[in-house]
Amino acid sequence: VARGQFKSLTSEGLDRLDHDRGAMCCAWHVNALMDPLSIMLTHPSHFVIGGRHDLVTRPILSFWTRRMAVQPVVRKAELLRGGFSQEEAQNLNGRTLLNIARGISHGHGSALFPEGTAHDEAHMIRLRTGPMRTVLAAAAIAHVEGRPLPHLVPVGLHFRVRHHFRTDAHVEYGDPIPVKLDDIPADLLAAVKRNDWSEPPAEAVTALRDTLTPRLRRLTPDLVTWDERRALHALAHVRARRQHRPLPDWKSEVMAARAERDALRPAEDRALEAIVPEPLSSPAIDAADALARRLEAHGLDGRDLDATARGLRRNTPTATLGGLARMALFLPLLPVFLLSMGIQSTLGYVKGNSTDEGVDARTTYHFVFALFASMIVWPLVAGGLAAGAYVGGLFDQTGFPEISAILAIPLCFPLFVLSGWSFASAWDGWVVLRGGLRRSRLRRRHAEALSAELGALHSVLDE
């Protein structure tokens, strides 16, 4: 899954966690289904999954989510649309949180997003209390059954361009927040003994939320706009090149941009109640913003600067030949890819690019159609290919044409997977070649303006 969806998927901080106890992972929510997927792919524990109620009612998707034991949650938006009374929603959500809490108490992991909904902001929105209530219930169950108390884990999710196929992703696990036995009231302990749900005290829930908020903010861009984020990354790239230590990967870029942000706005200056952060302001960030906007307008970013950050780099012959080779190696598998992935890829692309649910839902549709629809399409395609080969007499030479046709069906699946991986590799090769073309176009059309913007940024950094 990760090999196809992400160009790179890295993680850090797992060594900080005690894997003998349950973990309630909390992250900001800007990339819909890709957010829990990234956590589940990098965390070693088995996960108990909770999600919006319509995940278990939608066609095709519900077939799989029910078999994955996804626990449905009725959100306020779904309650306003109708179909549930307030009492029904509370009962369902109570059972869901109790089921998740029981899984966490047994040492499993779970990922809930305290913002309650995916969004397009470059900062966190107001946190809700579901994860805090759940981890307190999990702690109560763990204490009653003699297991280690679970902890609350802030998680930073970093996507280079969150709605792009084959983007880079980095998952950052922060220092866990322990749940203390003193935070668990007697009535909650009594309720979990009866396998019932009881609301934890508001004071304990609020205290956990207030502890989580600043830690989780630090693991996000925490900026007013995405333009500020692009400016920080451009500034980080230029500064790193000036110091002769270019940023080698996405993780390094995230950390360097955070260092630039923290230098301009210390974390301790932020009040818990302030949802929208103060805009960044400095001559360096203003100059970097002009540069970042120029690069963004041409589909480029700080990685496209040369070693001195005075111009744009050029594709090396090795990179060009490598990109061409990846695309050439995919050509023999193109017919297989069109047969096995063409229908669902087209449907996912059309639905994802036309959805009114926001850009955060784009990759969700791409992923859902490519993964789950393939489980329906692949057996049909494999059966059709085997039947066609049988009718055409291709299996006659084996002496057992019927058996050969049956055996050919499962043998098609590895070929389908290989064609998907080959497409991803060819896409990466095309991105390399496309980047060279875009840099060449920018040099031809706006070389002087780009040079002036880079010069202005260097002048500020020289001061």
Commentary on this structure:
With 463 residues, the protein is α/β, with parallel strands linked by helices. It has three domains: 2-218, 3-Layer(aba) Sandwich (Glycerol-3-phosphate (1)-acyltransferase); 226-311, no CATH class; 318-438, no CATH class. Helix content is 56%, strand content 9%. The protein contains 16 helices and nine strands. It has helices spanning 2-5, 34-42, 61-67, 76-81, 86-105, 130-144, 186-193, 202-218, 226-242, 250-264, 283-297, 317-330, 334-354, 362-372, 374-391, 401-462; strands spanning 6-12, 23-27, 47-48, 50-52, 71-73, 109-112, 151-159, 167-173, 177-178. Strands 1, 2, 3, 6, 7, 8 and 9 form a seven-stranded mixed beta sheet that branches. Strands 4-5 form a two-stranded parallel ribbon. The radius of gyration is 25 Å and the shape is flat. The mean pLDDT is 90.
Globular, elongated, flat, extended or rod-shaped: what is the shape? flat
DSSP helical segment count: 16
How many individual β-strands?
Answer: 9
Radius of gyration: 25 Å
Structural class: alpha/beta
Count of separate structural domains: 3
Examine the coordinates and then state which fold CATH places here, giving the name of the CATH topology of the largest domain: Glycerol-3-phosphate (1)-acyltransferase
Order of helices and strands: HEEHEEHEHHEHEEEHHHHHHHHHH
Topology, element by element:
Layout: H1 2-5, E1 6-12, E2 23-27, H2 34-42, E3 47-48, E4 50-52, H3 61-67, E5 71-73, H4 76-81, H5 86-105, E6 109-112, H6 130-144, E7 151-159, E8 167-173, E9 177-178, H7 186-193, H8 202-218, H9 226-242, H10 250-264, H11 283-297, H12 317-330, H13 334-354, H14 362-372, H15 374-391, H16 401-462
Parallel strand pairs: 1-8, 2-6, 2-7, 3-6, 4-5
Antiparallel strand pairs: 7-8, 7-9
